[in-house]
Amino acid sequence: MRKYASIIVIAVLLVLTGCNTLAPMLFGFREIHGYDAEQCEKFYKKLPKDFSFTPIVCNDEQFFQVSKLGVDSMQMKNLYQPLKIMYFQGDSLVSFHINCYCPPTALFNLNWNFNNQFDAFPPETTVPLECYTVTRSQLMNIFPEIKEDSDYTVLVFWTNMLHKVSKSEIKTVYKNLKKFGQLDEVDVYLINDDITMTKSLNETE
């Protein structure tokens, strides 16, 4: 588990580029201590009113199970990133985006649409999907809240630790669905991974 904790720390450092205390603040870095229902509720209330989603709290074991869906070390590292967007068409993963593939912006954020991937529905994948065998059914086994009611399912993993970047991540998905008239057609799940983020950073101390 410790090596995976290091992966998360590296991912955070990739986001929080800079060598002074101002950089983390500008990127929206926040100190957290596990899952905080009140903080998550405040976060969700700031999202667009016409954005329908199901919130999920991810525990450490579930987060690790997601990473184990990878068939090799690179896939496992990608699936262990704290910020992930996964579009499924039926049972198939058709679009995958993670924090460490996104370049930083001049406004201290990440550009999730740096190559206009989200100017299509479903978006063009950022992470090459060759050899990925991850399915919606596998994620449903990990998260019982996920249903198969729609042709498309979107999972967004986010954390209060990277509050500003997470908000940008989720709004990128929202804008994509709204642009293509899919707000009422797609099941969206916002999966908070604060428990894993807190534990992982503590393990590296």
Task: Report the biggest beta sheet as strand number plus sense, adding barrel if it closes.
Answer: 5 strands, mixed
Distance between the termini: 14 Å
Structural class: alpha/beta
Strand content: 15-25%
- DSSP summary: helix tally: 8
Mean pLDDT: 87
How many structurally independent domains? 1
Estimate the helix proportion, in percent: 25-40%
Strand order of the largest sheet: 1-5-4-2-3
SSE string, helices as H and strands as E: HHHEHHEEHEHEH
Tell me the overall shape. Answer: globular
Low-confidence stretches: 1-11, 13-24
Rg result: 16 Å
How many E-type strands? 5
What do you see in this structure?
The longest helix has 17 residues, at 163-179. Strand 4 (152-158), helix 7 and strand 5 form a beta-alpha-beta unit. 38% of the residues lie in helices and 15% in strands. With 205 residues, the protein is of the alpha/beta class.
